[in-house]
Amino acid sequence: MTDTRLETQNLTKRFGKFVAVEGVDLQIAAGETRALIGPNGAGKTTFQNLISGDLDVSDGSIIFEGTDITDVPPYERARMGMIRKYQENHVYDSETVIENMRMAARGDGLIRELIFREDDEAMESRIDELLGIANLSEKRETLVSQLSHGEQQWLEIVMCVLADPKLLVLDEPTSGMSVRETNDTVDLLEKIKQTDDISLLVVEHDMEFIKKVSNSITVLHRGSIIAEGSIEEVQDDEQVRDVYLEGG
Amino acid sequence: MLIDPSVIAIPLQVSQRVLIALTSISGLILVAAGLSIIFGLMGVINLSHGALMMVGAYMAFTVQDAGLPAWLGLVIAPIAVGLLGILIESSIIKRLYDRPLDTLLATWGIAIILREGIDLVYGTDSKSVDALIGGEISLVGVTYPVYWLFIVLAAVTVLAFSAGVFKYTDIGIMAIAVIEDRQMAAASGINTEWSDRLTFAFGSALAGLSGAIMAPLLSVNSNMGINWLVNSFLVVIVGGVGSFVGTGVGGILVGGLDNLFRTLSDFTSLAQAVVLLVAFVVIRFRPNGLIPAQKGGE
Amino acid sequence: MSTEAVTSSRVERILNDPHRAIEVAGLLILVLIPVLYPPSDVQTWAVYLLFCLLAVSVDLVWGYTGLLTLGHAAYFGAGAYLTAKVTTEIPAIPEVVVVFVLSPLLGAMLTLVVGWFLFSADVKGAYFAIATLIISVIFGNVVQQFTEFFGGFNGLAGIPTLSIGSIEFSVMMEYYTALVMLVVIYAGARLLTGSAFGRALKGIREDQKRTEAFGYNTELCRLLVFTISGGIAGIAGGMYATIDGFVSPPIVGFVLATEVVIWVAVGGRGTLIGAVAGALTIQFLESELSDLLINFWQISLAAVFIIVVIWAPGGLVGVVDEDSRVVRWLRTKLVSDAGSSEKQITEMTGKKND
Questions:
Q1: Residues of A in contact with C202 (CB under 8 A)
Q2: CATH number, residue A50
Q3: Distance (Å, whole) CA A70 – CA A51
Q4: Within-domain flag for C93
Q5: Is residue C151 included in any domain, yes or no?
Q6: Which chain C positions have a beta carbon within 8 Å of B285's beta carbon?
Q7: B&C contacts, CB < 8 Å
Q8: What is the ipTM, given to two decimal places?
Q9: CB atoms within 10 A of CB A138
């Protein structure tokens, strides 16, 4: 039996009278790559914010590897292995690529360890390895602001991987990318998935990309799950087709 | 703050205290009105607000010094400081709209320049300005300078006028449109650059006018604006950012608290400290911070 | 840090790490001050050093962590007033204890309270700045209000100088004590900012949410750096009291608090050396100017400040950053011929015969 890495139970978020996310029950297993799709305004961003702790839940609970994290602050969730890549590029603009990586190397301790940490060969080689799979090895000393949009996306992804995720949440990782860059992202994710039983939650619009990286999809519409399953199952689902034909 | 109850030699009665508080509150509202526009509406953290007020006071002094009628001072002050506002906005403020911390710092630098400039031109001694309307009036059995009534009237008028400008005039409505949705406004053909400039100038002009009006009650020197700067921010933050009613409410809260504390105790310096503490707590407890809508979206 | 060809050219070494060069040169000059100046001036220089310490404390919080603190004079003044009161009224406690233990403790406690109050609600940016400004105005008001206890406008005088046993510190000793404190704390700050913790601070400054999302407890980090800086400000204030012998409201209020920010900004925030250089340079220049020029000086300084804020956040030391245009130009002029590293090696080994 596979372990459930992430489980939400009746997850609900209200903003006044507006219900952004309603009664979402979702499970992601260890090693699974789940895609989350839905038209704009379906609640995908709100859902991610609830998972990462950027928003408080109105109802329901979030369970990560068996632990209830509903009231756990964001930084602690990250330390437990829930790492999120935000939609707009959130890399450290005025720093170099290598410095960005080092800044993402959180380490184990909270304060004391940070102050007294010695230079770590293991960490450096891990950084080199990750820069390699992101094809950024040659741009170590480049200022991030001089990278292309796609390169910044990849950098942020491997920065997230450096933080040792058990669940990596990717918010529209291929937005603004060319076809070629999108394919490179597929390769990148493939290499990342070779890490033992890392789970991925990929929020995306690009169906081709989704087909290549994930094995299961959850479809969100107006805050609720309307379909879930393998890609074929979901694509055949009538409700899904209606929603997308509506022009959502 | 403004009017020290101990200034009145005769024993104070409740009605007198109320009148003093009313005048003091009106003064606060009058001075804060300009900041309500620049900080409350535009989201510009303008630390030169007190200095602009001070320049207005000096304009009133200059008019008096030149032997011209006092009412002219009330005309020249807003015009002069309004023009100063245009200069400031077009050289400095416009570059910093998406950088609130830098705006804070740069406007502090402007305040220093204004203060030192005034010292250079006028000398560092304190000046005094005569009131436009002299004499006293008897109200509810208490003798009360007529000018204080003028201040109350001015505060109400300025507040109502400002609210009216932004609600009922074309130019005011456009200014709001620019602040709320820059892109849409630009697409509709509004010159957003000049809208910002004029809005800032309007706020500056009000600051200058308030300085000219308040000058007869204060010791006019280059540092006079600092207290008013702090209090104006308190009024706008506590009362509610972005609304003129809020400025009125803020003035009443801040002024009322201050006056209350002064009359209840001997600790007049602490009066401001208490109000500041209230503001400090307000800053902390407003959810999602008190950041007003920044220009260009958040 | 990128390095060019290994070379013994001193000029090139300096140009590769100008900040280190400034640190060394600065330290040398500061060590020699008592030799160059008469004792009365030396005391003034000692006070400059303490304000440099205050600038360092502000740089840690603002330059490195991105939290504009407009009220740091409050913690400096608290240390100063504490020292003033305790040394004059409780002589049983040795001055050295008051200055080196109690003052930083008070400074740290105050920043701990203020910091906890503000960071627990994630107050940052402009509102953090305004809130901290309010703190220093409150402190100023309190000090002015309780005239009996704090001396009101006239302040408190007659603060004894430091002494060990029965030996009272001479002005020279005071000066070198202040210098040692500055060097030690500066070195500590360097180590702190160069560590992984320093990276966390940088991350908080540049993108707090992202840094938090990597798993950093940014609230704790902010609280720690704020508290440390409060302790530094406190100890600087404590020393100030014993050296100057006199404390008064201006050292608690917003005037000093905003002045420090100007020193740090103009010197170059986020570099530590910029804070010290800015504080030292501005104070020194100010003292050299006659009263007549003071107005022009203030206006010029404010203008430079505005220019720095809008266009040149790196400040003065930013002009001599290893990557700055000035330094790069100097490199082409002063360091052999512009060319490949290999060419430079050959030239060097060809010229040198050791």
A1: 92, 95, 103
A2: 3.40.50.300
A3: 8
A4: yes
A5: yes
A6: 121
A7: 104
A8: 0.91
A9: 10
- Residue C347 in any domain: the answer is no
CATH (one of 1.25.40, 3.40.50, 1.10.3470, 1.10.1660) for B5-285: 1.10.3470
3-state helix, strand, coil in chain C (%, to 5): 75, 0, 20
Structural domain for C181, as ranges: 10-331
Say which DSSP state C161 is in.
P
pTM for the whole structure: 0.89
Which 3 state secondary structure label does DSSP give A204? coil
Chains meeting C at 3+ CB pairs closer than 8 A?
Answer: A, B
Q: Is residue C336 part of a domain?
A: no
Q: For chain C, which ranges sit under pLDDT 50?
A: 1-6, 8, 338-340, 342, 344, 347, 350-354
- State whether B116 and C302 contact (CB < 8 Å): yes
Nearest to B276 among C126, C127, C134 (CB): C134
Task: Say whether C212 and A74 touch across the interface (CB within 8 A).
Answer: yes
- State yes or no: pLDDT of A200 exceeds 70: yes
Inform me whether the C-beta atom of residue C312 falls under 8 Å from chain B C-beta atoms.
Answer: no
Determine whether the interchain pair C310/B276 forms a contact, defined as Cβ–Cβ distance below 8 Å.
no
Mean pLDDT computed over every residue of chain B: 86
Q: Given CA atoms B204, B209, B211, B214 in this order, what sign does their dihedral have? A: negative
**Can you tell me the distance from the alpha carbon of C162 to that of C238, in angstroms, rounded to the nearest whole number?**
10
Rounded alpha-carbon distances, angstroms, from residue C103 to A98, C86, C180, C224:
41, 10, 17, 17
Chain C nearest C-alpha distance from B163 (Å): 26
Shortest distance, CA C1 to any CA of chain A (angstroms): 9
C-alpha to C-alpha distance for B197 and B91, rounded to whole angstroms: 10
What is the sign, positive or negative, of the torsion defined by CA atoms of C1, C6, C8, C9? negative
Test B273 with C142 for CB contact under 8 angstroms. Answer: yes
| C213 touches A: beta carbon within 8 Å | yes
* CATH code: domain of residue C251: 1.10.3470
Extents of the domains making up chain B: 5-285
Rounded to whole angstroms, the Cα distance separating C233 from C228 reads: 9
> What is the separation, in whole angstroms, between the first and last Cα of chain C?
27
Residue A230 zone, left/alpha/beta (φ > 0; ψ -120 to 50; rest):
beta
Distance CA A212, CA A197 (A): 18
Q: What is the pLDDT of residues C53-107, one digit of tens each?
A: 999 999 999 999 999 999 999 999 999 999 999 998 888 888 899 999 999 999 9
pLDDT in tens, A35-44: 999 988 889 9
Cα C115 to Cα C121: distance, rounded to the nearest angstrom: 10
For residue A201, give the nearest of A185, A218, A188 by alpha carbon: A218
DSSP assignment letter at A27: E
Q: Does A179 contact C at CB distance below 8 Å?
A: no
Answer whether B160 touches C (CB < 8 Å). no
Which residue type occupies C168? Answer: E
From chain A, pick out residues whose CB is under 8 angstroms from the CB of C213.
Answer: 52, 74-75, 78, 83-84, 86
Q: Report whether B131 contacts B70 (CB < 8 A).
A: yes
